[in-house]
Amino acid sequence: MVSAGEDIAWEQRVERLRAAPLPRHVAIIMDGNGRWAHQRGLPRIAGHRASLEAVRDVVRFAGELGLEVLTLFAFSTENWKRPRSEVEALWDLLVDHVESELDDLVSNGVQVRVIGRVEELPPAAREAVGKAVRATAHNRRLILVLALNYGGRRELVDACARLAARVKAGELRPEDIDEDMVAGALYTAGLPDPDLLIRTSGEQRISNFLLWQTAYTEFWVTDVCWPDFRRQHLAQAIEAYQRRERRFGGLSREGQE
Ligand code: IPE
Ligand code: IPE
Ligand code: MG
User: Fold this and answer.
1) 18-38, pLDDT tens digit by residue?
2) In a domain, 40, yes or no
3) Structural domain total, the chain
4) From the alpha carbon of 30, which atom of ligand 2 is closest?
């Protein structure tokens, strides 16, 4: 139970977050499900199952707070290396979660998008996410991007192939290719780059996530394992972000004086 005093303190904290510039796009590497389970003497899949509560709370809060885009790294192109039973369980959980959350996503104005090689997903997963994307396409409150079978290098390879095909077709000259064109050939075309990247469970690496898009993203790492991550942790990450100064290769405010 949360006391009335704690409720007021939380509301004030949220108001303060909204009063300063919010990140438009937050991306999360949801890591540590296996360790969370291991610490409790449970099978890894129990960690994946518990992680869904974190997803639910964070998606809900991102919409309430007013973020424009939330990207969640759920399955990488390298995660196929795991035992088949774990991989299958992950896709089954995804299907269950997307189906059981769909009504809430629709009523909360969440637009679901997917990045990654979706065509390589098991059919049931492809159908479930396809249905969610179609059912939420008109929603405008929050864009929820699910990175499924996503790899940053694979995305860049796919972008190169797309641009090369346009050159071959005579639509484009190699010397006309610029940064905007590359960005426009990525899975994330049209989305702002992430302002803030969160990784849970203490690892300090990018693990092939959004390699192009994170060129100037602020990183925030927490030791909390993903199944324990809640809106308070997202608030903490955004508070840290709001205290930072982004320079994009320029000078600090003091440096310009
Ligand atoms: C993140 O948790 C979920 C996926 C990568 C699918 P992990 O399963 O990587 O958990 P750890 O890193 O082994 O603890
Ligand atoms: C990154 O976590 C991928 C996802 C969170 C989906 P991993 O657990 O796969 O990353 P590594 O292997 O520790 O780098
Ligand atoms: Mg991991």
Assistant:
1) 999 999 999 999 999 999 999
2) yes
3) 1
4) 5
